[in-house]
Amino acid sequence: MGRYLVVANQTLGGDQLMTEVRRRTGAGPSSFYVIVPNTRSGTAEDEHRATLTAQSRLNQALNQLRSEGLDAHGDIGDPEPLTAIEDALAGQQFDEIIISTLPSGISHWLRMDLPQRAERKFKLPVTTVTTRH
Question: What's the whole-model pTM score?
Fold first, then answer.
C-alpha cells in the first residue's frame, strides 16, 4: 500500500491536488495523511481564528478524500511546515510527500524552498502541486 503525506493549507481540496491524489490511488491501494501547518498570527484571538480555519480546512479535505472512498487521516501541524513534516514522520512512515502550495510569486513555501529542503532532509520523494490562480 502506498502511504502519502500531504502537506497543504490554503490549497487543500483544490483540483490539482485531487488530481495527484487520484493518480496515486490509480496505481494501487493508498492511504493519505494530511498535515495542515497552523498559521502563526499576532494576538491570541488571531491565533485562535487561524487554528479554527486550519481545522476547518483539514475536516473538509478529509471529508472530500473519504467521500471518494480513500483511507485518509490528518492533523493540524506546527506552523513551520518543515517541522510539521518532521513531526508527522516521527510517528509514521510514508513513501512520498506531496506538498500543495500557491503559485510561485505568492507562495511563501516556494520562496523558502520547502519542497527541496524537505526532500534533502527526509530522503523521500517530494511532489509539488501548485494551484492555478
Answer: 0.93
Strands 96-101 and 126-130: parallel
Residue-range domains of the chain with CATH:
2-130 (3.40.50.620)
Cβ(6)–Cβ(33) below 8 Å: yes
- DSSP H or E stretch at residue 115: helix 114-122
CA distances from 12 to 45, 61, 108, 121 (A): 24, 6, 16, 24
Burial 88-97 (b: 16+ CB within 10 A, else e): bbeeeebebb
| Tens-level pLDDT at each residue, the chain (133 residues) | 899 999 999 898 889 999 999 999 999 999 999 999 997 767 778 888 888 999 999 999 999 999 999 999 999 999 999 999 999 999 899 999 999 999 988 999 999 999 999 999 999 999 999 987 5
d(CA 99, CA 128): 5
HSE, CB side, 13 Å, CA atoms: give it for residue 104: 3
Strand, coil or helix: 76: strand
In the chain, the amino acid numbered 90 is A
